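new request in #modeling-help
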Amino acid sequence: MLTIESLKKTFITRDGAKVAAVGGVSLEVDQGRLLTLLGPSGCGKTTTLRSVAGLEKPDSGRIVIDGEAVFDSTNGINVPANRRGIGMVFQSYAIWPHMTVFENVAFPLRVAQDRRYSRAEIERAVARALDMVRLSGYQSRSSTQLSGGQQQRLALARGLVREPKLLLLDEPLSNLDAKLREQMRFELKRLQLELGITTLYVTHDQAEALALSDEIAVMNAGHVIQRGTPYDIYHRPNSEFVAGFLGSTNFLPGKVESAMGADGTGVVGTPHGPVKCSFARSAAARQQVMIVIRPEDVQLAAEAPVDTTNTFQGRIANRVFLGEVIDYLVEVGGEELRVRARPEWDFNIGTPVHIILPPAKCVGISDDRGAAVARQPEAVGA
Amino acid sequence: MATAETALQPRKNALLKFSEWLTLSRFILLCCAIICAWLVFVPLASLIFVSFAEDTPAGPGGFTFENFVNAYTKPYLADLFLTSLEFAVFSAVITLLLGAGIAWVVERTDAPGRSVFHALTLIAFAVPGLLIAMAWALTLSPNIGWGNRALQAVFGLEEPPFNIYSMGGMIWTLSSHYFPLAYLLMGPAFRVLDIRMEEAAIVSGARNWQVARRVTMPLLRPAILSTLLLIFVRAIEAFEVPLLLGLPSKIYVFTTEIRFAIAEAPPQFGYSSSLGLTLLVICILGVWAYRRATRDAEAYATVTGKGYMPTPIKLGPWRWPVTILTSIIFILSLGLPLFALLWQSLYYKTIPNVDLLADFTWRNYGYIFTYPVFLNALKNSAILGASSATLVVALGFVMAWIVQRTNVRHAWTLDAMAFIPIAIPSVIIGASILFAYLILPIPIYNTLWILLIAYVTMYLPYGMRFASGGIIQIHRELEEVAEVAGATLIQTFRRVLLPLMSPALIAAWLYIFVMGVRELTASLFLAGPHTQVLGTISLTMWEEGGSYGTVAALSIVQIVPLVMIVAVMRLIETKISRRG
């Protein structure tokens, strides 16, 4: 449905310096799916989105929407934004303050160049779009009288009123407060499933990305670092960058002792002892790797377990009670490990504990693509 | 469509490359740049050219340093320089004190009548400088000033206590003309001064004077400095006040000296332009320093972040004394001159006096409205004001849009270029445009066109500022979403940008119109026998000295509509700020 091929975009700053915002991004999104571009600010995700919209002209690459090339640097094709037939929601919502709710939604139909819409058609389409986002009855309101959440819905209705093939969402929830954001997350998910509309979503919020996406592309410094389902991205990060960007993570440096076996696992020697883990990609013996484990995957026990694989001795250094969980800092051989535990595992500060790192949850990362990209001198995010 | 383009991929020749490079926005940019460069650099170039050229009866002659030697070896040059500086520095200080004082009362206190003070300041803003100078002459001239007469009568004085034809008189008159500008510059600084910063100092144990010295003053310093600098530049390029009030006592400043050198027979173009260059350098330095200072002021303004609520200082028992004191300032700076004009306009060939109520007459007004010279000047001023405002707003809007919204490289140079005229005194604009179109074979001398060029040049920076300010207020995404929704550039302009910007554009138009109708200085150099404007005929009628009553009536006839236009303008601006 949407294909992006080796998209590149360099900005020239006022003092003449070249800044690569997007350094060769390739992606495709299937019909009806939602792909999220996730990354820190300046990673190039918004530039990628704006290139798809036609608001930014890439230096090179190819963008195909529904079989039609809207941008192709080799053929000099660049369809202007107003001919791409896209729905888009901006971070600021960009609700026109001089128009009513109705006029805001009706605008894309009024300026349509391919056909003229009759008054009745416009009224019907606007009513349906507003109904979709649950803003029926607000037609004649001044758009400035709406609350933040309502403005967000209005922006969405305006994006959907033409029934576009592709919907682009640029951090649409970032201006809402936490409670409303959670509510809108479900709402967006419902709409996207109901309409089956192909969607490209940009956010820096990992929770949003995990909740909404069929697929996530994690970006850093103008490159896609990892693509996969939310589950894969979260549990099987391919790099330190991805592991660090999504949620909090423990990193254990070590050296591969026995290379990856048939079951995809191997043993890594760490300063605390050998750790059995799986690998993100094949790793040879004696290679330096980083073991990644999520705080919520670490188990704590007062007594040593029967199977002592991946079990270490530690001491509770600090604890924070958060209601549904307790966060611990556990000291292991001079280093600190973050552990997120259920409240039943209640240990006081100073208590010695056994730490179990379940082998299935430990991932050995052999190279760091995120860092490697960031080290390239020209690849500084814009 | 895409495939057709793919099939036809011609080899690029130079012309095609150029036409590809020349997008619509680049083309418009180029046009604007050429217009701008013409407006700004042609007069400057001719000023420099004339200053290095021999003065001959046939126009500028061969290359020479004579003009500079002539100008800068004159014994009274040091005098001229010091007089100009004295006038500008003291005017800036007094103007700041007046403007900042009123701004403080209006923005920071709960004194009664604050909105009245605000409105009065804007009335003062609408009154042309020439008319203020005339009004003060009518009030405090040793011969004809009714104020002096009244004081003499009340206190039984032999001599008139005040003489407006003095350095002090000039400074006071200019300050009473410029204080609205200081008010408008200092008002926002007081408004954004978060009282919580002062409260934090109090909670930290500081006493009131320590708070003022260590917190309030340092926070206000950039605004004070930038206001002082701007008023200084405005004062050193002021012309009307030194002309009307300095001349009778032989007090000369740069601007009057330049004017007289040109008005002499034969005109000393070379001498006046070499003096003009010095004035220009002073003004450019002043504006440069002003820009730096405002940048600091803006940096401070961003310190006050979210959740800021302006809390007025509770004056308690001092509420009424503060109001009364402020009212006295207004009576002295605005009330007296306006009263003098109004009163004088109702008398014919006599100086108003309490005993002379019997001589009250409307005939001055009757005379003005049947005076063909006035009617012609009114027409010219209206045409010039309206057309320069329209051109400047259109040009400013297009250029500001290119600078703010497109990625065309070097677009910011346009911004810088359009800002240059703000540093060029009107005297120099007038003189150099006169030189330029005497030299160039463009036959617009003695027509309205040459005046229009001068006006557009002078007001270009204001048009640019207003338009940029308006565009910056409009989030870029409001336009982008229209584009993505399928609107063409024209549709986006018409349906989104223009409706959103129209208040700012109308305000800009009215502001420039008011300035155009008030214009005197540049017009004095450029107006021909049939292209006199309101400013020049007012001056001529004053200088001929026939009837002060007629001149006063002429002034009132100008002031009343200007005040009304400024009122409309402020109404629009409040609407904008409420929406923003």
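bot summary: Residues 370-382 of chain A have pLDDT under 50 and may be disordered.
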